[in-house]
Amino acid sequence: MRFDTKIGIVVRRDLAVWQKLNVTAFLASAVAGGAPEVIGERYEDGSGTSYLPMFRQPVLVYAADPAGLARVRARAVERGLAVAVYIEEMFKTGNDVDNRAAVRAVTAEEMPLVGLAVHGPKNAVDKTLKGLPLHP
């Protein structure tokens, strides 16, 4: 199936495994919260038990170094794509209010990115993520 939009998550390749998974989960939740149209219908098993809905399209996860993350963030903003960011300081906070304050405390150019998500038209996302390898 072909989709008009694309969801890409980019994670800094040198993070610990638990950090990569944590960052990916938080960034995926940002796309789901910010673009509800990407969410499908609820699931139901043969016994009638209902389950939460998921993305209706694939989510591709890429790896990058800090310079690659900064480049992707700049390209995504320039193209007007929906962007979510996760910065180093967010590993030290324990709540959403402190996370937002940590992001607000740095300029876009100084942002110590460990991950980001982009969502938008497939062509624009492909151009934004061009050159990045899929995460191993």
From TrEMBL:
Pfam families: DUF2000 (PF09391). InterPro entries: DUF2000 (IPR018988), Pep_tRNA_hydro_II_dom_sf (IPR023476). This is DUF2000 domain-containing protein.
